[in-house]
């Protein structure tokens, strides 16, 4: 059965110390100004966080059969300080590096991975469209192959890390034909930043994740070489379902960081905030809420760590893809919903102060809701879990 080692614990504390020193003092200002801290990315790279699942030949840590648990610990600790920074790492690895690492040619890996691992550049992943979210097969973006080049036309929505000054490439899914069964043939194509016809639209005005970079993308007769195909033609949909399974565990870790932060903040506040001459934590109306919150945080932690361990075991050939898919969906569903409840509980404990932006719980409250939506909604997770139980699709 899984358990964290001393090395895991030492790593966690290294990331925690970094977050407390380099991130925590600045997040309130970054959030207020909707500022993406580009200069922080190489620092995350120097700490090795972008390369935890990447082999050493591409600049990574060489933990490809064990690195996913380390990655989730890093995302949890960053997310405990700020959710935007946590999702930047999560998306940078899971949606930026992982597709190239998993399906790229050796030339593609050598071209992009060293800079991505070092944090010198970032990569995005263009799946969602204005009219195609959970139904990714409804993608309308098209890519036509002629004379050795792909010509891409279409649009993508809500794409993380896609418009920063460090973004080097975005991998997009597009219709490249019709499959034998009549369904759309979906392929994945890499589009380098600066390619004519590729535009990252202005940043979204979001409810939360103000520090995270998120754009809509448009492609108007955007031409890239035929060799920019990532993996096999027609396999893009299958590839990215696999990518999303891994990403759901990472989002579970991000949600865990959010819930843990809310538990710590609310508990400390309940010990020091006095009402009627005594700390509000004396009141069962407060203490019972925090007891319930502590219980849900512990459950989310166990589900997240188990799913991460199963992923590492699957990479080593000891567990099945189906086991990881089910565990990822369960962890993502529970942890994200627990995080939303945690932010509401913490805000309630803080009372009127919880509604003030000077207190971190307000930022966590705004940031939490997207956790139940991105990387597959809670409804989609329930569908996946039900199918894993053998119920009819």
From TrEMBL:
Keyword Oxidoreductase: yes
Known cofactor(s): FAD
Keyword Oxidoreductase assigned: yes
UniProt keyword list: FAD, Flavoprotein, Oxidoreductase
Stretches assigned to the Acyl-CoA dehydrogenase/oxidase N-terminal domain: 5-119
Ranges for domain Acyl-CoA oxidase/dehydrogenase middle: 125-222
Highest taxon listed in the record's lineage: Bacteria
Acyl-CoA dehydrogenase/oxidase C-terminal domain mapped to chain residues: 234-389
GO molecular function terms attached to this record: acyl-CoA dehydrogenase activity; flavin adenine dinucleotide binding
Pfam (any one): Acyl-CoA_dh_1
PANTHER family for this protein: ACYL-COA DEHYDROGENASE, ISOVALERYL-COA DEHYDROGENASE, MITOCHONDRIAL-RELATED
Similarity comment: Belongs to the acyl-CoA dehydrogenase family.
Name of the protein: Alkylation response protein AidB-like acyl-CoA dehydrogenase
Species this protein is from: Allobranchiibius huperziae
């Amino acid at each position: 059965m899984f358990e964290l080692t001393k090395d895991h614990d030492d790593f966690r504390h290294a990331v925690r110390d970094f977050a407390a020193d380099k991130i925590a003092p600045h997040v309130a200002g970054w959030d207020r100004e909707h500022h993406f801290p580009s200069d922080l990315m190489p620092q995350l790279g120097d700490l090795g966080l972008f390369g935890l699942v990447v082999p050493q030949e591409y600049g990574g840590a060489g933990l490809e059969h064990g690195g996913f648990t380390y990655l989730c610990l890093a995302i949890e600790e960053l997310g405990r300080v700020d959710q935007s920074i946590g999702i930047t790492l999560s998306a940078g690895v899971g949606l930026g590096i992982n597709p190239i690492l998993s399906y790229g040619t050796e030339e593609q890996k050598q071209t992009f991975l060293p800079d991505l691992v070092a944090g010198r550049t970032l990569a995005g992943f263009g799946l969602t469209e204005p009219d195609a979210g959970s139904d990714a097969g409804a993608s309308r973006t098209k890519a036509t192959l002629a004379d050795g080049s792909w010509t891409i036309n279409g649009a993508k929505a809500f794409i993380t890390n896609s418009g920063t000054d460090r973004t080097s490439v975005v991998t997009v899914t597009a219709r490249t034909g019709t499959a034998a069964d009549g369904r759309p043939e979906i392929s994945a194509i890499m589009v380098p930043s600066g390619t004519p016809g590729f535009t990252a639209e202005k940043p979204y005005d979001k409810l939360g994740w103000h520090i995270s970079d998120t754009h809509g993308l448009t492609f108007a007769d955007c031409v890239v070489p035929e060799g920019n195909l990532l993996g096999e033609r027609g396999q893009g949909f299958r590839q990215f379902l696999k990518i999303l399974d891994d990403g759901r565990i990472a989002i579970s870790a991000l949600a865990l960081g959010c819930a843990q932060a809310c538990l710590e903040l609310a508990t400390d506040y309940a010990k020091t905030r006095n009402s009627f001459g005594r700390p509000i934590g004396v009141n069962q109306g407060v203490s019972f809420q925090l007891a319930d919150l502590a219980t849900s945080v512990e459950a989310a932690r166990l589900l997240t760590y188990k799913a991460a361990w199963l992923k590492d075991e699957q990479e080593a050939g000891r567990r099945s893809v189906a086991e990881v898919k089910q565990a990822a969906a369960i962890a993502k569903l529970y942890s994200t919903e627990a995080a939303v409840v945690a932010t509401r509980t913490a805000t309630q404990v803080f009372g009127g102060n919880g509604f003030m932006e000077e207190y971190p719980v307000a930022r966590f409250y705004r940031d939490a809701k997207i956790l139940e939506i991105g990387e597959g909604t809670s409804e989609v997770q329930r569908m996946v879990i039900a199918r894993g139980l053998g119920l009819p699709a």
